[in-house]
Design a protein that fits this description.
By secondary structure, the protein is an all-beta fold. It contains no helices and nine strands. It holds the Pfam family Rieske.
Length: about 110
């Protein structure tokens, strides 16, 4: 699979998540306060809730329903009730295009 254009960089609002779908994979795309674009799985691992409806703070995305926050860098939950991570995807920026390949997840140590 190859990277797919999901949106324009200029369409992203800082500290706001945007839901996209690539090949049936729901992804939350976030432009953080430092100008870095992140892509993580859009479904909270605690409940079947869209994370892109949640709240961005720093390098975290918090589920609006139960308050679990996930690291935008690692996908790891930072508090309960979630205890399983969400996938984190590689993001490529080409000009104003944001590209994501949902078959390529980041390996985070």
């Amino acid at each position: 699979m190859t990277a797919t254009r999901v949106c324009a960089l200029s369409e992203l609002e800082q500290d706001t998540a945007r839901r996209v779908e690539v090949d049936g994979v729901a992804i939350a795309v976030v432009l953080d306060g430092n100008g870095e674009v992140h892509a993580i799985g859009d479904v909270c691992t605690h409940g079947d809730i869209s994370l892109s409806d949640g709240f961005v703070e720093g390098e975290t995305l918090e589920c609006w329903a139960h308050g679990s926050a996930f690291s935008l860098r690692t996908g790891q939950p930072l508090n309960l009730p979630a205890y399983e991570p969400v996938p984190v995807f590689e993001v490529t920026i080409e000009g104003d295009d944001v590209l994501i390949d949902p078959s390529v997840t980041k390996v985070v140590n």
